[in-house]
Structures are given as structure tokens and as C-alpha cells.
Known about the structure:
Elements: E1 2-6, E2 9-12, E3 17-24, E4 33-38, E5 45-50, E6 57-59, E7 67-72, E8 77-82, E9 91-99, E10 102-105, E11 109-114
Parallel strand pairs: 2-11
Antiparallel strand pairs: 1-3, 3-8, 4-5, 4-9, 5-6, 7-8, 9-10, 9-11
Amino acid sequence: VQLVESGGGLVQSGGSLRLSCAASGLSFCVYGMTWYRQAPGQERELVASIAHTVYDTTYGAFVKDRFTIFRDREKNTVELTMYNLEAEATAGYYCSVRRYGRDYWGQGTRVTVSS
């Protein structure tokens, strides 16, 4: 299983970013996918997850309808679109999947929001 995140970068407060996670080595349509984030000195927290059914999504309480998770079954990708970003969103963002009881992680993509 390989997960590769992309799309991070520097954005001004109030701006938007779209992160992408490309998955390979697994039957993509079978597994739920999750985005987490971890800021320096902070614990990792769930940002958003999407079930294999596509329509079943979960978001962290801090998201407040500003983020959208989407999975593209043809491309085997999971995208996280983030709107109205605030400085608190500065963190490493990681894609994860649980397969046969084991969690797989990507290398992460860094998001920095400047105020």
C-alpha cells in the first residue's frame, strides 16, 4: 500500500487549498480513507474521512463546513478541499487507510497559513 499526498503549500489567511492523496497497492473502492493533521507540538487530529460508499463522510468539529472530502474512484485519489483557511490550520496533513487491521500513512504534505 502506498499513499502519496500533494497540494500543500503556503496560503494567506482566508485562502483555499486542495490536497490530494493518491492511493495504490489496494482495492481503493473497498476502504474508507481519512485525512489527519498534526501541528508542531500538537496531537494528531482527524480532519475528514470518507467511507468506501463515497457518500458517508465525517469531519472534525473544527472544520465548521469549511472543508470538503471527495474520493475519485477512477483516479484512486482522495481530495481535501479547504476554504477560508486560518492560521490554526498550519500543520502537516496526512492521508491514512486501515487495511486488515493495519494503518497505512503517507509522507504528508505541509500546509502553512500566513496571517
